[in-house]
Design a protein that fits this description.
The complex is a heterodimer of chains A (115) and B (113). Chain A is an all-beta fold and 115 residues long. Helix content of chain A is 0%, strand content 52%. In chain B, 32% of the residues are buried. Classes of the chains: A mainly beta (115), B mainly beta (113).
C-alpha cells in the first residue's frame, strides 16, 4: 500500500530558530500534499495544500511566512517553521494524495516542542 | 469549510461489545467518506471508507453504514478489542479537485478488557 514517510518524528528547538519537517511518498507520486496541525486531544486542522511545482495554498489564519511549504518534486514536500515560538509547539502531520491512491495516506507525524 | 459533526466525543465499551460512532455532514458532491484510526503519537491511518452509492461496507470487524438522504454515516466495530482503543475520526472531502478533507472532532474509544 501507499506509504508516506515523515521526518523527524520529534524535534525540540529553541525559540527563534527554524525547523524543517520532511514528508516523502515512498511508492507513489504525490501530486498533492497536505499539512495538518493537531493540538493535544483535538482534531486535525488543515494548514495548507501544496501541489507539486506550484505555490502552496494556505488556509485562513495560517501565516504563510511562518510556515514555509515547498513541494519541489512528486515525492517530497517540506514544511519549515520559521522563527519558532512556544505557541508553535504542536503535532504536525503531512498527508499525500493522488487520484489513483485516493487514500489520503498520512505520515507518522512530527512532535515539535519549542523551548 | 465543510463541517463534519462527530459523536460521541468519548466511548467506553467492554471487550466483545459493539462500538458505534456517528458522523453527519453538510452538502457535498464528492463520493468518498473515510474513517481514520489514530493511536497516541502517531498519524491517522485509514481504517475504512465508503462511497455514497452503497449503504454499507464491511471489512473484517469494521462496518460503515451510510445514509445519503440523512447525510450521515457511522462506524461500527464488532467484537471490540482492547487493541481497538484509539481515537477515531470521520472525514469528508471538500475543496474541488484537491480533495481536501475536513475531520470530525474525534471519538476517543476505550475498550476495557
Amino acid at each position: 500500500g501507499a506509504v508516506v514517510s515523515q521526518h523527524p518524528s520529534w524535534v525540540i528547538c529553541k525559540s527563534g530558530t527554524s525547523v524543517k519537517i520532511e514528508c516523502r511518498s515512498l511508492d507513489f507520486q504525490a501530486t498533492t500534499m497536505f499539512w495538518y496541525r493537531q493540538f493535544p486531544k483535538q482534531s486535525l486542522m488543515l494548514m495548507a495544500t501544496s501541489n507539486e511545482g506550484s505555490k502552496a495554498t494556505y488556509e485562513q489564519g495560517v501565516e504563510k511566512d511562518k510556515f514555509l511549504i515547498n513541494h519541489a518534486s512528486l515525492t517530497l514536500s517540506t514544511l519549515t517553521v520559521t522563527s519558532a515560538h512556544p505557541e508553535d509547539s504542536s503535532f504536525y502531520i503531512c498527508s499525500a494524495g493522488d487520484r489513483a491512491v485516493r487514500g489520503y495516506t498520512f505520515g507518522s507525524g512530527t512532535r515539535l516542542t519549542v523551548v | 469549510q465543510q463541517q463534519v459533526k462527530q459523536s460521541p466525543q468519548s466511548l467506553i465499551v467492554q471487550k466483545g461489545g459493539i462500538s458505534i460512532i456517528n458522523c453527519a455532514y453538510e452538502n457535498t458532491a464528492f463520493d468518498y467518506f473515510p474513517w481514520y484510526q489514530q493511536f497516541p503519537g502517531k498519524g491517522p491511518a485509514l481504517l475504512i471508507a465508503i462511497r455514497p452509492d452503497v449503504s454499507e461496507k464491511k471489512e473484517g470487524r469494521f462496518t460503515i453504514s451510510f445514509n445519503k438522504s440523512a447525510k450521515q454515516f457511522s462506524l461500527h466495530i464488532m467484537d471490540s478489542q482492547p487493541g481497538d482503543s484509539a481515537t477515531y475520526f470521520c472525514a469528508a472531502p471538500w475543496g474541488g479537485s484537491n480533495y481536501k478533507l475536513t475531520f470530525g472532532k474525534g471519538t476517543l474509544l476505550t475498550v476495557n478488557p
